UniProtKB/TrEMBL annotation:
Classification via InterPro entries: Mopterin_synth/thiamin_S_b, RnfH, RnfH_sf
Pfam families tied to this protein: Ub-RnfH
Superkingdom in the source lineage: Bacteria
The protein's name: UPF0125 protein GCM10022277_30080
Similarity field: Belongs to the UPF0125 (RnfH) family.
Entries under HAMAP family matching the protein: UPF0125_RnfH
NCBIfam families: PRK01777.1
Membrane spanning residue stretches: none
């Protein structure tokens, strides 16, 4: 008897593009398995499924090799932040303050 297949999505974005790949995987597959099966690494060779942070619908998953993916889930691959969000907010506030002082 053939294993049941489920439909999931694997998503990755760069500043230039966003890709969401539909993937059919066997029920019981892990998030990691779905990412590898998706072939996204062929489109984005910088992705290393062994170390890239993953999540489902915006919620980080600590152990993607152990978490089973469910029908309809979107697995997201996260790039490292270029700047800490607190530092970015402080930079914006400083620029706004400087601009206001010039006005």
């Amino acid at each position: 008897m053939a294993a049941e297949k489920i439909q999931v999505e694997v998503a990755y974005a760069t500043p230039e593009s966003q890709v969401i790949l539909p993937v059919l995987v066997e029920a019981g597959s892990s998030l990691f398995d779905a990412v590898v099966h998706s072939g996204i690494v062929q489109q984005f060779p910088e992705i290393d499924p062994e170390v890239i942070p993953m999540g489902v619908f915006g919620k980080s998953v600590r152990k993607p090799k152990e978490q089973e993916v469910l029908e309809g889930e979107r697995i997201e691959l996260y790039r490292p932040l270029k700047i800490d969000p607190k530092a970015a907010r402080a930079n914006r506030a400083a620029k706004a303050k400087a601009k206001k002082a010039l006005d």
